[in-house]
Amino acid sequence: MMHGVPPALADLLGPDHVLAGEAAADFAVDGCRPALAAFPGTPEEVAAVLALAEREGLAVVPWGGGTGQGLGNPPERYDLALSLARLDRVLDYQPADLTVTVEAGIPLGRLQERLAEHGQFLPLDPPHGDRATVGGILARAATGPRRLRYGAPRDLLIGIRVAHPDGTLSRAGGKVVKNVAGYDLNKLYTGSLGTLGVIMAATFKVLPRPARVGTAVAIFPSLEAACRAARSFLDVPARPLALDVLNPPALRRLADQAGLEVRTPEGYAVVAEFGGVPAAVERQLLDFSDHMDEGGWDLRQVSVDVAPADRLHQALADLGWDVPDPAGFALRASVVPTAIPDVVQAWEEQGRQVGRRPLVRAHSGVGVVQSFWGIIGSEPPSFAAGLVARLREAVAGLGGSLLVAACPPEVKALVDVWGPVPESFPLMQRIKAEFDPRRTLNPGRFLGRL
Fold first, then answer.
1. pLDDT tens digits for 266-319?
2. Residue 337 to residue 364: CA distance in whole angstroms
3. C-alpha distances in angstroms, 137 versus 315, 326, 418?
4. How many CA atoms lie less than 13 Å away from 432 in the CB half-sphere?
5. Which of 36, 160, 366, 382 has the fewest Cβ atoms nearer than 10 Å?
6. Residues 50-79, mean pLDDT to the nearest whole number
């Protein structure tokens, strides 16, 4: 057991930038507490801390805003929390070129404020986007409702800088949108959960903020009608920023958070967002309303511009993660979009069998379905593990995969949250061995317990 701050670490960062013992308890992951927490202030210091950790055999968990640390298996070892809180600067911003380079520890909310000064934004909207850091968003490949229009983080990333366990720093990509030279390492690091290197900085392409955002909500009496209506709307010219299907508990939660007036609280909702110049948004909202009215799906209610756009979008992005303890039990399925109603139906059927109705939301057109089951604390861990097994089998039968996005560590001890390893897993093992041979970074937390 390590006691106190190692002299080499104190000399490297200064004693004010290292915590030890109980002072580092706030950086626990799945009940595992690190002995140390380090706060480097430059990429060179990060690289030096990683080199020290590798020499001393210390396991490191990179730390951003802490909003996504529930993702992944429990760490096999955890000695040092590596916080990027001090690396939070905008390094280069070129509004005319629509590019921005930032350090990984900057919260997305603060970056958006800076971009808004020039009428621009980075179109990422993960849960808790005000606090989530850019590095954490990339490490998790975190997305939100507007992925439908703007894509995933890797689609907006054009350059990256990474610190490695051997103490080196590397770059990939560049600072211009048309950079196509070399192997695309940006995609390798994005979504790797910090197991290959620690992201130091990133360059993104940014976009003009829509002059207006409008939202419409259509409510139907059945899941089948809502999913058919949403799927059919993807074929019309009025392309939305986001298009989500919500089951009744999700609709009620959204109504509470965003101040919606819902006359059919037990209905299934289709929520569509549109953005652009005011005249175009007005036309798109009208097209949505007409399409829902004329579809023959037994529409119960349609509302347009039902709440202030920013408030409603934030509620939609955080939906399910805004409850008092969102890490109770959260699942995410990835399927072909046409299988969405089957996934939702399977989850609701399992909910009826176990006496719990989950909050379910689906990103139509993307094929991502999320469910939130609340805290399973009154049941043994085997209860949740069995539920995961049955739901994973149902999703696999539809050609998809199921990720346990959050759950208590007692459940993680019984299931691999990532699910079965793919055929490409031997290649992933070789890449891990090449980039992190001593398994210094997030050991055991990624797919296949890499």
1. 899 999 999 999 999 999 999 999 999 888 778 888 888 777 788 889 999 999
2. 6
3. 18, 18, 18
4. 23
5. 382
6. 95
Structure tokens at 41: 């202030």
Helix or strand run (H / E) with residue 57:
none
pTM > 0.90: yes or no: yes
pLDDT over 70 at 392, yes or no:
yes
**pLDDT at residue 65 is higher than 80:** yes
Task: Find all residues with CB under 8 Å of 176, minimum gap 6, and list them.
Answer: 97, 99, 158
The DSSP code sequence of 153-198 is HHHHEEEEEEE-TTS-EEEEE-SSTT---S--HHHHHTTSTTSS-E
For CA atoms 419, 424, 428, 429, the dihedral sign is positive
d(CA 380, CA 27): 26
Give CA–CA dist 236/286, Å, rounded: 12
DSSP 422: P
The H-assigned helical ranges of 36-99 are: 43-56
Q: What is the pLDDT of residue 325?
A: 53
Q: What are phi and psi of 189, to 5 degrees?
A: -75, -35
C-alpha–C-alpha distance, residues 234 and 243, integer Å: 9
Sign of CA dihedral 415, 338, 362, 299: negative
Cα(297)–Cα(228) distance, integer angstroms: 8
Alpha helices in 295-371 (DSSP H): 309-318, 340-354
Location of structure tokens 């009940």: 31
Cα 371 to chain centroid, rounded: 14
Measured from the Cβ of residue 286, the count of other Cβ atoms closer than 10 Å reads 14
For residue 66, which of 79, 83, 78 has the smallest C-alpha distance? 83
Q: How far apart are CA 59 and CA 374, in angstroms?
A: 31
DSSP 8-state symbol, 234? T
Query: Which domains are present in the chain?
Result: 1-209+421-450 (3.30.465.10), 212-318 (3.30.70.2190), 330-412 (3.30.70.2740)
Burial class (CB in 10 A: 0-12, 13-18, 19+), 331: buried
DSSP state of 144: -
Please tell me the distance from the alpha carbon of residue 102 to that of residue 46, in angstroms, as a whole number. Answer: 16
pLDDT of residue 178: 53
